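Why does residue order matter? Because the sequence determines the fold. Keep that principle in mind as you read this record.
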Amino acid sequence: MNRVLATIGVFALAAATVVAQAKPPTQTPAKPGTSLTMTAAGPITMSIRSTFDEVKDYLLRSAQMVDEKDFGFKPAGVAAEVRNYGQILGHVADANYGFCGSVMGAADAGEHGPKGEQFEKVTSKVEMQKALAAAFAYCDKAFNGVNDRNGGEAIKLFFGADSTKLGALAFNNAHNYEHYGNLVTYLRAMGKVPPSSQPKK
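Structure:
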């Protein structure tokens, strides 16, 4: 009998351990400007954040690796209305404010900067790098206010569609990668190796 009770006790302890390990991480709000940890944000938010950090790096490097004169580049045969290299970078900056402003509930969230800037019109390399860095920092701020508990809250995107906070951040990742893909094509046409294909340092 004692042996049976001991066996039941071992199984109960093992089951309790599995349940305890399966619980979602404790959600601790992060202070503005600080990096989120897995414990603070939760695994779903952090997986979306990880993708954002990756494409952010690729886009910043894409802006850095070409000369200012190349901002006007488009592959031969591309229609006049198609964005050139610099316009793609500027469009990315603009859209980051739209998506991340929607997440933060900004009253003026739209495809523009905080002062109504249209970064797609920027032609200076230095100014474009500043614009991209600021737009990505704005999205970092949005991520700092989102976790697995509140990420499912319903919001309106800046162009009127229904979404959730995490849905908007994931949509922004997809949009960033969509246009990074454009830049990859342009870089290859220039004879350059895109950041994502360069050897890891």
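The helical segments are 2-22, 38-41, 43-64, 85-104, 125-144, 165-189.
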